[in-house]
């Protein structure tokens, strides 16, 4: 009798649960026959993450070049590009406003009518964070746009600068359609073959996803534990609630308005979401995101190859939401009441910095430092949120990836594509509704 193999998302989910139990049991210091389990977790997790990262540059280049070249006319590229950027701007803004509403309602920085800053204190690791973000300010927002035009695309790719790589790939794909048919066809075949090869490599790496996820999650739990989160529960659950409401509320409504079933979309993206949660990297999850969107959601490669690589860099709903809530929490913890103009500044900066936050050292912490500087708060305050940052990073990355996938499904429907996640008006309510 043939034994049925568990689907990938169930394997990953089991790995996450086991990793939490094993990581909590072993801790960071425990040794077994002279070997620390923590070191084993670190090796396995890092190796898996490096394997995924290895695929990013050739996958992004081949997918965007093939996608843009396949769009053909200026009209086709312009229509798809405007719809993509419009969705990303709208979803990020809605996420920020939702986070702003919730943090004002809950006020996690206030306890018993008093700011919680004195109770929480600042951890020793704050000094290390400040070294990474020292000297940064609102001018870094302008630098995001400067990085879109790299002086050396090879060096940019080697340094992991996705914004510049995306710009170059889009231009390359566009001008491929402007050369004579014979060489243009040769380039299309070449980049198409590269893309197919990269997807095959992705499928091979993902066979080891449960092991890699186990290592990453066990390493995190072993080093941080759970006890350190108790003083920050109000802030932690405010962010978590906002992320859940955005994923299951805002994005679900946008999907439904576009004629896409939120349940089917979530089910189609489950493996990618679990991987995003465990790796805390939208870029590292991109190969699996593309596979789920195309194979499970039924979105064409023409749409996914353009929308998803762009989204992995510029569409950061969860990150933008987190930046806003974190800045407001810190203001509350210091007893600062922000007026409408200051809160508008927080919203605007959260939207702008989330666009290119993945390319800045120290990631969202740098973006938060920009916001704090703009509203007059000390950068030392970042230390208040370091305790929960890693777990919330995993959660907001999953929301980032889900938003990218929703954008691909919505845009595909808007241009008339038939997808497997389309809502079925005649179906009764149930798991497939």
Can you walk me through this structure?
This protein is an all-alpha fold and 433 residues long. It has a single domain (8-414), classed as Sodium:dicarboxylate symporter (Proton glutamate symport protein, Orthogonal Bundle). The protein is 73% helix and 1% strand. It has helices at residues 8-26, 37-71, 74-106, 117-120, 126-133, 139-146, 153-158, 162-176, 181-206, 209-224, 233-257, 262-279, 282-296, 301-314, 317-333, 340-355, 363-374, 386-414; strands spanning 110-111, 114-115. A two-stranded antiparallel ribbon has the order 1-2. The chain is globular and about 70 Å long. 47% of the residues are buried.
Which short descriptors sum up this protein?
433 residues, mainly alpha, Proton glutamate symport protein, two-stranded antiparallel ribbon, 73% helix
What string, H for helix and E for strand, traces the elements in order?
Answer: HHHEEHHHHHHHHHHHHHHH
Q: Cα-atom Rg, whole angstroms?
A: 22 Å
CATH fold title: Proton glutamate symport protein
- The CATH architecture: Orthogonal Bundle
CATH superfamily: Sodium:dicarboxylate symporter
* Helix/sheet category: mainly alpha
| Whole-number mean pLDDT | 79
Helix content: over 70%
> What count of helical segments does DSSP give?
18
Classify the beta-strand content into a percent band. Answer: under 5%
Shape: globular
Largest sheet strand order: 1-2
Identify the CATH class: Mainly Alpha
Largest beta-sheet characterization: 2 strands, antiparallel
Number of strands: 2
The N- and C-terminal alpha carbons lie at a distance of 34 Å
**Which stretches are low in confidence, meaning pLDDT under 50 for 5 or more residues running?**
122-126, 425-433
Number of domains: 1
């Amino acid at each position: 009798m043939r034994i049925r193999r568990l689907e990938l998302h169930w394997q990953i989910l089991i790995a996450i649960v086991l990793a939490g139990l094993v990581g909590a049991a072993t801790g960071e210091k425990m040794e077994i026959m002279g070997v620390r389990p923590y070191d084993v977790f670190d090796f396995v997790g890092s190796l898996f993450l490096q394997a995924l990262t290895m695929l990013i540059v050739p996958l992004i280049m081949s997918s965007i070049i093939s996608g843009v070249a396949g769009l053909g006319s200026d009209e086709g590229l312009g229509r798809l590009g405007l719809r993509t950027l419009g969705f990303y701007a709208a979803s990020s803004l809605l996420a920020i406003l939702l986070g702003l509403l919730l943090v004002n309602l809950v006020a996690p920085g206030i306890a018993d009518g008093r700011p919680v800053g004195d109770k929480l204190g600042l951890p020793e690791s704050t000094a290390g964070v400040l070294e990474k973000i020292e000297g940064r300010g609102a001018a870094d927002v302008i630098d995001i746009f400067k990085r879109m035009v790299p002086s050396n695309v090879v060096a940019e790719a080697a340094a992991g600068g996705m914004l510049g790589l995306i710009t170059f790939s889009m231009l390359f794909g566009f001008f491929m359609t402007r050369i004579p048919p014979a060489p243009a066809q040769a380039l299309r075949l070449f980049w198409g073959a590269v893309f197919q090869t990269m997807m095959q490599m992705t499928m091979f790496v993902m066979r080891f996803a449960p092991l890699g996820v186990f290592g990453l999650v066990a390493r995190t739990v072993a080093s941080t534990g759970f006890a350190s989160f108790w003083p920050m529960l109000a802030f932690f659950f405010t962010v978590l609630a906002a992320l859940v409401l955005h994923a299951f509320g805002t994005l679900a409504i946008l999907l439904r308005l576009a004629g896409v079933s939120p349940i089917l979309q979530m089910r189609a993206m489950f493996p990618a979401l679990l991987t995003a949660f465990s790796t805390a990297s939208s870029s590292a999850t991109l190969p699996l995101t593309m596979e789920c969107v195309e194979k499970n959601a039924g979105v064409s490669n023409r749409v996914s190859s353009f929308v998803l690589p762009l989204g992995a860099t510029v569409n950061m709903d969860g990150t933008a939401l987190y930046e806003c809530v974190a800045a407001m929490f810190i203001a509350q913890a210091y007893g600062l009441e922000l007026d409408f103009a200051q809160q508008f500044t927080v919203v605007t900066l959260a939207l702008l910095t989330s666009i290119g936050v993945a390319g800045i050292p120290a990631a969202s912490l740098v973006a938060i430092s920009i916001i704090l500087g703009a509203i007059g708060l000390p950068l030392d305050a970042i230390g208040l949120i370091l305790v929960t940052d890693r777990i919330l990073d995993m959660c907001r990355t999953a929301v980032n990836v889900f938003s990218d996938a929703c954008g691909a499904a919505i845009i595909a429907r808007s241009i008339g594509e038939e997808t497997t996640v389309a809502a079925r008006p005649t179906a009764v309510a149930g798991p497939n509704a």
